[in-house]
Design a protein that fits this description.
Elements: H1 38-52, E1 62-65, E2 68-71, E3 80-82, E4 88-90, H2 101-105, H3 107-126, H4 146-163
Antiparallel strand pairs: 1-2, 2-3, 3-4
Length: about 160
C-alpha cells in the first residue's frame, strides 16, 4: 500500500498594504489631446469635400441616429449615412459601385438617376397593355416516347412477317 498524501494547503500571508496617496502628494497628470474618431474624421472630410466642390451646405447638416451620423448637406438631397468606423452609405440609393468619398460627392446624381428609373417604371405600368396579336395555330410537335417508338416498330415488323 502506498501512503496517503496529506492535504497541504499553501500558507496565505497577508500582503503589506501601501498607503493611499495623500492630498499633499502631487500627482503627475498628463493631458492627452482627444483624437477624433473615424466617424468624426469621415464627417469632416465629407463636408470639406462638398464645400470644395462648390455645393451649398446647410448650417447643420449632421444629425446623430444612434451610432450613425446622418449627413443631409442641403434640403432635398439624399441622406449620407456614416458609420462608427467611417464607412459611407447613401440611404435613398439602393446600390452604387463604391462606398468612398468621390461616390458620396455624386450622391445627388445617383439619387436623380434612381428617381428617373422609378418614374419610368411607373409610367410604363400605367400604360394600357397592348392588344394580343393572333397567330395562326400551329400543331405542336409531339416528341415520340421510346415506348411508342418500339410499339410502332413492332407493328411494322408484324406487317412484314404477315406479308412474307
Amino acid at each position: 500500500m502506498t501512503p496517503k498524501k496529506h492535504d497541504t494547503k499553501p500558507e496565505v500571508k497577508p500582503q503589506p498594504t501601501t498607503a493611499a496617496p495623500t492630498a499633499s502628494a502631487p500627482q503627475a497628470q498628463t493631458a492627452k489631446p482627444v483624437e477624433p474618431t473615424k466617424q468624426e474624421k469621415a464627417i469632416k472630410a465629407l463636408i470639406i469635400a462638398l464645400a470644395e466642390s462648390g455645393l451649398r451646405i446647410d448650417a447643420n447638416p449632421v444629425t446623430m441616429d444612434g451610432k450613425f451620423a446622418l449627413v443631409r448637406p442641403w434640403g432635398p438631397a439624399p441622406t449620407i449615412k456614416i458609420g462608427p468606423s467611417g464607412s459611407y452609405d447613401i440611404i435613398e440609393v439602393r446600390s452604387f459601385a463604391k462606398a468612398d468619398l468621390p461616390t458620396m460627392l455624386k450622391a445627388k446624381e445617383l439619387y436623380d438617376k434612381r428617381v428617373a428609373r422609378e418614374q419610368k417604371k411607373a409610367a410604363e405600368a400605367s400604360k394600357p397593355a397592348p392588344a394580343p396579336t393572333t397567330k395562326p395555330e400551329s400543331k405542336p410537335i409531339a416528341k415520340e416516347t421510346p415506348t411508342a417508338r418500339k410499339a410502332k416498330e413492332s407493328e411494322q415488323l408484324e406487317k412484314q412477317l404477315a406479308h412474307a
